[in-house]
Fold this protein.
Amino acid sequence: MVCRKLGLRGTATDGVLTARRKDECRAALEQAGLASARYAPAETEETGYPVILKPPSGADRLLSYVVGRATEAAACCQGMLTGLDAVPSQWHEQFRRGILVEEYLVGTLVSVELGSREGEFFPFAVSGRFRWAEDEVGELGSYIPAHLPEEQAAICVAYAVDVCRAIDLDLGVFHLEIMVTDRGPVLVEGNP
Ligand SMILES: Nc1ncnc2c1ncn2[C@@H]1O[C@H](COP(=O)(O)OP(=O)(O)OP(=O)(O)O)[C@@H](O)[C@H]1O
Ligand SMILES: [Mg+2]
């Protein structure tokens, strides 16, 4: 926003805003014909269990839950609606945008780190990410490079570039969290 206002070079503002709305990001992936996870706002639809419940503009895994069955969903939603005390106060506004329900993706979690400039993409690394076995939204750390076969790493990078193009992450350094599933890489979230 500041770059746009001052006429400075920066990542396309709409790209950043799309990435920071996880539901809008998934809509953009669908529009571009790219792999994504089924998703819905909590009040409209069920996608079948297990699901991930998360704030659409969440960060730092706060108030995100893996929900195995319908009977657990109400308590998690309650936790999300009443748990703002656990969130830094400057983030409260962005944590009040409802609840996003996402298909629970099964696979190996990695991230692709890359830069882009003038239509060119510069892949830096595919990183591996440890998750806590008892709560898969909990990430414990990362390592570089991910232990992926070379061909699979290349497929992840190509998908990450497609995602950046689809949501207009046109200038900057980006960190895309991706699940390597049986149907190929699927975005978890894109961070501008
Ligand atoms: N659809 C999904 N399927 C499976 N696991 C998921 C899904 N969405 C999120 N997760 C897990 O939960 C973690 C946190 O989700 P996400 O990255 O969307 O939230 P975040 O609050 O932006 O986290 P952070 O800021 O730490 O990256 C992911 O790293 C992943 O381990
Ligand atoms: Mg994340």
Q: What stands out?
A: The two ends are 13 Å apart (CA to CA). Residues 39 and 102 are 4 Å apart (CA to CA). The longest strand covers residues 120-132.
